[in-house]
Each structure stands twice: as C-alpha cells, then as structure tokens.
Amino acid sequence: MKPIRILNVCAEFAPLAKSGGLADVTSSLTAYLTSQGHEVRTLLPHYSIINAEVSSEPAALGPADADLGGETVRYAARRHADAAAHGELFLLECAALYDGGIYGSGEREFYRFALLCRAAVELCEALNWTPDIIHCHDWHTALLTTMVAAARRAGGRFAGTQTILTIHNIGYQGIFPAHMLAAAGLQALEPMLNVDDAADAQINLLEAGIRSADALTTVSPTHAREICTPEYGMGLETLLQQRSDRLQGILNGVDNEYWNPATDGWIEHNYSKETPADKQANKQALLDELGLTTGARTPLLGLISRLVGQKGTDLLAAVLPDLLRQQRLGCAILGTGEPTYVAALHRLAKEFAGQLVFVDAYDERLAHRILAGCDLLVVPSRYEPCGLTQLYALRYGTVPVVRKTGGLADTIRHFDPQTGRGNGSVFEHANAQGLHWGLTTALDWYADSTAWRQLVANGMSEDFSWCRQGGEYETLYRKLIEERRIH
Ligand code: ADP
C-alpha cells in the first residue's frame, strides 16, 4: 500500500522534551509509523533545555520574523541531525519564545504555541511537501486544525490534507483572551472560533480544535466515552457529543525496546519473564540507593507521577500513614508538581523515615529503577486518559494498583486468585476507602507467593506495544484520506 505522508506537530517528544506521557507517545508512535514505511515529519519547539544536534544545512524554514503581541520575534526550523528512527524531525527555533522549559505560564504560552502552528503550515510550503495527514496533539497544536481548515477553504496546498486532533489530556484546554488572536495576526480565524464580541471574550484552543479537526481521537476507548459525559468532559462534553461520530479511542502503545527489563541499562540486574526472580536484586539495589530499611521481604510500593489533583496524590497521602504504621509496606515516590502535594509527601517522608522516600525531581533513571525494584506501582487517578506507567509496570513485573477509569480500566483487569486470571488490583471509587481496598487486596495477594508469581507472570506476558495498537492509527489515516478523495 502507498505510504502515508504524515506531519506530526507536538509540544513534547521523548527523549528531547518530556514532562509526561505525551512525549512518550508522540515519539514511539512516530517510530512505529516510520518502521511501517510511512513518510513522517515532526515539528516541535527547540526549547533551550533541548540538547540536540541540528543539521548544519541551511534552515528548512526561515529565518523569518513574526509579530506577536507587539514584539517581533525571529524564528527558523532546522532538521535534527540524527533522528532516522523517527522519520524527519524539525526543531523550531525562536530564542525569544522557547528560552527555558517546555511549558511556561500566562499569555506568552499562546504566542509560543501559535507560532508552532503557524510554522507547521509554513514548513510544508518551504519543503514543498503536502502531507496527507496533519496529526495534532492537545491544546498546544489544536489551532493548527483550524488554520488548515481555513487554508483549505481557499484551495491550495492543503486541499487534500486531513487533520487529526488527539486529546491526551482534556484537563488542559489552552484558554486565552480572544484579543490575542489579532495580536498574533490570526484575526482571520475568528469567525471559525465562536468568539463573541465581549471585551473579555476568551478563546479555548482545545475547543477550537475539536470543532475544526477532521477526526478526533483520545488515548483509550473508555476515555473516549467518558469525555462525552459531564463528569469527565470538563465543559466540552456537549461539543464532543455533537462530534462523537468523528471521535474514537485508540489505546496508547508502549515502546517495548525502551521499556524492557531484559536490556534496560539503568537497572542493576536485567531480567525477563523467564527469570522473574532476578527482579529481587533490583529491589535490594533500590532499597540501598534510597536508604529504605524495610527489607527485601516487605512489599515495596512505587509511585511515578506528576503530582496534581488528577493523579490522586492526596488520596495516597491520606491512605499511607495507616499502612506504614502497620509496617505493611515500604514506599518509593518520585514526582514533581503542586506545592501542597509536595509538602504532604515531604511530611510523610519525615514521619516515616526509612519506610517511605519521596524524591521531588524529574528523574528518568530513577523512574526505571523504581519500576524494576518495586513490587507494586500505584496509579490512583481521578481521571486517566490512558496512563503509561501501569503499562511499564506490567513489563517490569510490578503489579499495578489502579483506579477503574479511562485507560487504566482498559488495560488492568482485577486479579482473581481462584482462576489465576488478571494483571493487577483495580478499585472502583476515587476516594481513600477505594484506594485502601485496592492496596490491601494486593498486599494480601503478595502474602501468597504462588498467587503472586502467577499475577506477576500474567503482567509480564501482556503486549501493549505499538505493533498491536499502531494499526488503528493507520486505518484511521487511510479512512480519512479516502473520505477526502471522495468529497
Ligand atoms: P501523564 O502523561 O498524565 O503524566 P502517563 O502515565 O501517561 O501520565 O505518563 C507519565 C510518563 O512520565 C511516564 O513515562 C513516567 O515514567 C514519566 N514521569 C512522570 N513523572 C516523572 C518523574 N518525576 N521522573 C521521571 N519520569 C516521570
């Protein structure tokens, strides 16, 4: 079959710029599509934290100037020198806007990502390349779907191009004062964006993308249904219901090469599902590294997470003291986030020194070591579009304890010691009682070594790689291309 030309535009891309699962998914999906022979080009901002070698050729786009919010900024896009596995990767340079990390704050965010969308359009012109599909991710690039829809009305390069917006996290929508559109030279889009005339009118970029994109996806089938309800739709449920014929859930895939305990260079002892007992050595190494004194026989619970309300960090902080007092577990927590959760975890670490360690950092190496060294990994999310850490935990023989929501519900099945089926502990309600039940149930299984071995083996036998899921994106891309051809 003919290869598909795909332009992928995103705010995060692992390992260059990662704050969470978005980076893992844009990167691993691109690698999968490239491996299937498709022509994939990706554009992301060259934040100054990115340490990447760009090609010495002249810029693929620019240098050019843009007027944004009364300021003239200079930008250019250059090829990443070494990214063959990911097709072609372009980094958008703009020292005035991308100095620092991935996300900033305030109104400047609008200009940073409006420039990314605009540069995506211009890059296609500069390369004289017409993608079949433009794949946008989250609010940061949602406006690009509106730009393409507007450009298509005028005919030209994008007449045959289809857009997809993937909603990785509906909790972040990109809401800004509407007057910023004109300040970014984008007033022509106003009629397509439902902007009212009030002086304090706002634009919601994710909403704009949901209106304009030719197809909408989110990252698990259950979450696709959830976001059409008031409980999970975050105010966008009515619009999503109206567009539900264009919405589908495609589960995220795992890069099985990278998240592989048999080859992982960050862990002390490599192991596989044939040698699960070797995992023990990683547990001891982690206990030693973190100064935990709970010992090899006590179950060790891990958490690797952004520390925000969505992730249920407060529920964990409420439930742990009892379990720690009863000496039922040790705990290794890695995360960064909101100050109240950070402070609560620091307090716990102080009160239960030797039993609970909290590392307030973003640390890729430690994330791998926690996955390899812990017996259990907890994901107590209030909502979870897909969730990746529970999938990584399965690979590393670490039993996930998850709330039944979104992608967690689609990937983790509650274990039944009678039948030996299931791959984790699944609790229903996002409250302390629910989480307590999920954890104590898993701890009871841990005490039964035969049941535990079976549970670990079940998890390690799962396959959530892109080889299993990636085909769904290819099918969707081809369906969209066919629709465009017919109309
Ligand atoms: P989300 O995208 O909502 O943050 P996911 O479970 O989909 O949640 O993905 C989280 C990703 O970010 C995983 O790769 C996880 O290992 C990583 N991660 C989260 N916090 C940290 C941290 N403090 N240090 C290292 N990796 C982290």
Task: State the main characteristics.
487 residues; alpha/beta; Rossmann fold; 2 domains; nine-stranded mixed β-sheet; globular; binds adenosine-5'-diphosphate
Helical residues, percent: 25-40%
Q: Which distinct ligands sit in these coordinates?
A: adenosine-5'-diphosphate
| CATH class membership of the largest domain | Alpha Beta
Uncertain runs with pLDDT below 50, 5 residues or more? none
Distance between the termini: 21 Å
At the fourth level of CATH, the homologous superfamily of the largest domain is Glycogen Phosphorylase B
Strand content: 15-25%
Whole-number total of structural domains: 2
Q: CATH fold name of the largest domain, please?
A: Rossmann fold
Give an overview in words.
The protein has 487 residues and is of the alpha/beta class. It folds into 2 domains: 5-253 and 467-486, 3-Layer(aba) Sandwich (Rossmann fold), CATH 3.40.50; 276-464, Glycogen Phosphorylase B (Rossmann fold, 3-Layer(aba) Sandwich), CATH 3.40.50.2000. It has helices spanning 21-35, 108-127, 138-153, 179-183, 205-212, 221-226, 237-242, 279-290, 313-325, 339-351, 364-373, 389-395, 406-411, 432-446, 449-460, 466-486, and strands at residues 5-9, 39-45, 61-68, 71-79, 88-93, 133-137, 162-167, 175-177, 202-204, 215-218, 247-249, 300-307, 330-337, 356-359, 376-379, 399-403, 425-427. The strands form 3 sheets. A 9-stranded mixed β-sheet has the order 3-4-5-2-1-6-7-10-11, with helices on both faces. The chain has a 6-stranded parallel β-sheet with strand order 14-13-12-15-16-17, sandwiched between helices. Helix 1 (21-35) crosses helix 16 (466-486), helix 2 (108-127) crosses helix 3 and helix 9 (313-325) crosses helix 14. The longest helix is centred in the last third of the chain and has 21 residues, at 466-486. The protein is globular, with a radius of gyration of 23 Å. The two termini are 21 Å apart. The mean pLDDT is 95. The structure holds adenosine-5'-diphosphate.
